[in-house]
Design brief:
Layout lengths: L1 H80 L6
């Protein structure tokens, strides 16, 4: 009786060890995936930051261009209408 009980316990222990290794492997894959996602999130966050600042620089450049264009139109309109002051 002791021999069959020991064999049964040995089989149960081997099964539990197999399951433990299987779960450890799954856990390792999940941790690897988590690290990969965290790295991708950092890259995406940095790209969004760069995009916001690029959009800001474009908007500032557009405002400056509008101001310069308005000044040119003002000068051109003064020249065309003859409202130019001569010194």
């Amino acid at each position: 009786m002791n021999g069959s009980l020991l064999r049964l316990l040995s089989v149960k222990i081997n099964l539990l060890v197999y399951r433990l290794h299987k779960y450890e492997a799954v856990l390792a894959k999940a941790q690897t995936a988590s690290r990969r996602i965290q790295a991708q999130a950092r890259v995406a966050h940095h790209a969004a930051y760069e995009a916001r600042h690029t959009a800001r620089r474009i908007a500032i450049g557009a405002d400056e261009a509008r101001g310069q264009l308005a000044a040119v139109w003002l000068c051109l309109s003064a020249i065309l209408t003859g409202n130019v002051k001569e010194d």
